[in-house]
Amino acid sequence: MSASSKLIERGERSERVERILTVENLKTYFRTPEGLVKAVDEVSFHLDRGEVLALVGESGCGKSVTALSILGLVKSPPALVEGSIEFRGTQLIGLGPKEYREIRGRQISMIFQEPMSAFDPLYTVGYQLMEVARAHMPWDDAEAKARIIDTLRAIHIPDPEKRYSEYPHEMSGGMLQRIMIAMALITSPEIIIADEPTTALDVTIQAQVLNLMQELQRDYHGSMIFITHDLGTVAEVADRVHVMYAGKIVEKAPVVELFEDPLHPYTLGLLTSRVKREYKGESLPFIEGNVPRADELPEGCRFHPRCPRAMDKCRTLEPPEFSPRPNRGVACWLWEEGDGR
Ligand SMILES: Nc1ncnc2c1ncn2[C@@H]1O[C@H](COP(=O)(O)OP(=O)(O)O)[C@@H](O)[C@H]1O
Ligand SMILES: [Mg+2]
User: Fold this and answer.
1) Per-residue confidence band for 239, with pLDDT thresholds at 50, 70 and 90
2) What is the CATH number of the domain that holds 88?
3) What range defines the domain where residue 52 resides?
4) Which ligand is nearest to the CA of 80?
5) Predicted structure pTM score
6) Which residues have any ligand 1 atom within 6 Å of their CB?
7) 12-32 burial: b if 16+ Cβ within 10 Å, else e
């Protein structure tokens, strides 16, 4: 495809863009005996229909709490959830439990990291899939079962009728993860939030589930928030990537640009360690130190104690989001004016 036809295609697409979720200045704080844990701190982003947004960052940077906040699964109080989460015109913050139940599972569904914890060991998976259908869809039981079997077949679960009657403990972790993906799909939700859907699986099964996620991205026309600590998994799946660090989004970019032209020193560190890393793990050998605890955040830029390019200003002032290129965002003082290279 020529560059110009690509542009035209993009132009056409942008006319049809429908903003489905807008998160503004989201703060989710927990009061703990050790102090206030600022798990998510003034996070803003949006999601358009049909796109896959990846949230990437090391463990503990606030990815899951962001997801749980969108789903209304953070209890507030005692936690503090502030800001704005607008889903197709409805403000989710402060929404009552009954209204939330109509949205959660039906319009926004979630795939969790630990498939075992999402299922009740006492019931067959078919029964549990049926419960989701009964709670949200207008189908009678025969139709619900037929649709569930279709969904299982659509995501390549062999012998779906047999699987339907099995108990969770009769299945491998990989199979159960697929069943959870099916569970998230039954209601044809507007948004699927997949929180590290492959992390708990062994490597070969990870690849299979990731392929399935890619297929979903192609065939399913809803939107997805794909959460991962592993930049390696986002390249194939995501349209845009947001990099999180210590409760903040530090960089926003279309996926190709993030890999080709990272702007934030943290993103660069993530990419470098991914390339040079010869072992599996979450640590970043090419960025010294660890993510600060959410109740012991440093002054200024939260990344400055680990940043090879930290300046005086970075130690005292928190950087706002700068936009040095179209469709890009970077919270780093290097980009305050001109080129941060
Ligand atoms: N219920 C809670 N109470 C107190 N602190 C929490 C709670 N849930 C998460 N946290 C803290 O919030 C921070 C972000 O957690 P999380 O979103 O789970 O990180 P991630 O998913 O990126 O690994 C961590 O420091 C974690 O310890
Ligand atoms: Mg998490």
Assistant:
1) very high
2) 3.40.50.300
3) 18-107+187-335
4) 1
5) 0.90
6) 30, 32, 37, 39, 57, 59-65, 294
7) eeeeeeeebbebeebbbbbee
